[in-house]
Amino acid sequence: MLETIRILNTTLPALYLAIFAVYLIDFFKDKPALHNIKRIFLFVTLIIHTAYLLFWTIHFDHPPITTKFEIFTVLAFSVAFSYFLIELSSDIRATGAFIILFSLIFQAISSLFIEDLIDVPEVLRNRLLGLHVISALLGYAGITISAVYSMLFTIQYKRIKLNQFGLVFNRLPSLEMLEKLSVNSIIVGFALLTIAIVIGTVWLPQAFPDFSLLDPKLLTTGAVWLIYGSGLAVRFTSGLYGKKFMTFSVIGFVAAIVALAASGIMGSSFHQFNK
Length: 275
Fold this sequence. Notes:
By secondary structure, the protein is mainly α. The two termini are 26 Å apart. The protein is flat, with a radius of gyration of 19 Å. 79% of the residues lie in helices and 0% in strands. Helix 1 (2-29) runs antiparallel to helix 2, helix 2 runs antiparallel to helix 3 and helix 5 packs antiparallel against helix 7 (175-207). It has two domains: 1-120; 125-275, no CATH class.
């Protein structure tokens, strides 16, 4: 099984690169033959990625959440899977390249640096911890996708303002649809982050003797949750719509990335299992 895991680890970045290329070609060329092929290709890759995650969990007896490079592969899957659901529900297929690019980057980093870890703390084999981490990663996938749609909204908005009705304008969805996709992604991402925080609040103090509310990763996740919660509250109470909300989505995403990066250098954390 270990050899299969290593083959899949090498294959996945190539698959995501191929999917990215197919979506990008279809964006610029708009070839009808590619419309369904790219969705099937993405579906097959998700099945292969699921098998990789299951094989990893079975062989090493823990889900791939031990190190940041293990988490990157779960994040790559989360982004691709979330986009797949969005494409199925909305039937909008022209934005895939911009989102799959993130899965490609995350998986490439994971495949390059991931290590085989068998001896890990027993707590990492707990299903509640797996649910906690996966909910958080799906939440971050949601806000990542929201930021992509917000950036596409900004591009489309500027082209309309400048009366530039070319290829990009024709291929991208309407401003109303881009805003809807961005907002829905934030709502789902925020809900999943909430689930992760609730599980963490109830279970983590029991699982970790050195648990602390001042843990850097808890503080940064809480800050991200407050940022997006405040944004959604303002939107639905005071009417934060259009370009203003799209700007908030992008700024919130940048703040989330900066906060997560900062948490990695802000001293020790009970979340840090391997150094």
